[in-house]
Amino acid sequence: MILDIDIDGWPPSTDWPDLAERAVEAAQKVAPELTNQRLTASLLFTLDQDVQFLNREWRSKDTATNVLSFPMMTREELLALAPDGGPEMLGDLALAYETCSREAADKGIPVADHAAHLIIHGLLHLAGHDHVHSDDEADAMERLEINALAIMGLSDPY
């Protein structure tokens, strides 16, 4: 997967692109549908106000949230995607710094660890996984997240 990363307002204390690439690799190990070399995605590290704007414009929710995911293909399209051909946009992710930072502090973990979790969470959403419609789907998605984070050497966030 080719990841287009844009960073706006996140502190330079962490190599965010490297963290994102490691999160993608971990997500690919637990969700092999993400390994198709044709896939591209964008990841925006930004501020709460920008995520709030996106949330309001696209989801009619006038609040910031930790991560937004905007899939551009269905799960069925992703699973049927042939390995040969031109690039295909999986979708976009946006992470909100202040919300991510506050949640990490509440959990007593580094912001980078929480950001890695949110990137994995968002990628799984782009791949068609969900946690809203049923407890079984939520449990399955949590297991994937826990396993991906373990691959990165990070602890269970739940």
Structure notes:
With 158 residues, the protein is of the alpha/beta class. The protein has a single domain, classed as Metalloproteases ("zincins"), catalytic domain (Collagenase (Catalytic Domain)), CATH 3.40.390. Helix content is 49%, strand content 18%. It has a four-stranded mixed β-sheet, sandwiched between helices. Helix 1 crosses helix 6. The two termini are 27 Å apart. The mean pLDDT is 96. It comes from Allopontixanthobacter sediminis.
List strands and helices in order, with pairings.
Elements: E1 2-7, H1 16-30, E2 39-46, H2 48-59, E3 67-71, H3 75-80, E4 88-96, H4 97-107, H5 111-126, H6 135-151
Parallel strand pairs: 1-2, 2-4
Antiparallel strand pairs: 3-4
Helix pairs in contact: 1-5, 1-6, 4-5, 5-6
Task: Supply the key terms.
18% strand; alpha/beta; 158 residues
Structure summarized in a few sentences:
This protein has 158 residues and is α/β, with parallel strands linked by helices. Helices cover 49% and strands 18% of the residues. Strands 1-2-4-3 form a four-stranded mixed β-sheet, sandwiched between helices.
Give the strand content: 15-25%
Order of helices and strands: EHEHEHEHHH
Helix content: 40-55%
Compute the separation of the termini in Å.
27 Å
- Tally of helical segments: 6
Q: Count every beta strand, where a strand is a DSSP E run of 2 or more residues.
A: 4
Give the overall shape, derived from the CA principal axes.
globular
Family: Belongs to the endoribonuclease YbeY family.
EC number: 3.1.-.-
Main location: cytoplasm
Protein name: Endoribonuclease YbeY
